[in-house]
Amino acid sequence: MTAQDLQNIIAAGLPCDHIEVTGDGRHWAAVIVSPAFEGLRLIQRHQRVYATLGERIRTDEVHALSMKTHTPAEWAAQA
Length: 79
Hints:
With 79 residues, this protein is of the alpha+beta class.
């Protein structure tokens, strides 16, 4: 799996205003900006992302994913 593959999987399952994925094929880091995160706690945001990966997490195809999740307003406030 490539970073682009992982980015495409997440984007297919979650509306994303911005997404960046980096990693080495097993250990990944992602910055994800989505309006779907509005009103959600951090753990709920991560659960939404993990849900897009489905079996890939359970079968260890994606071994580790570190995430920074933001709403569009949170992302804009960082600029």
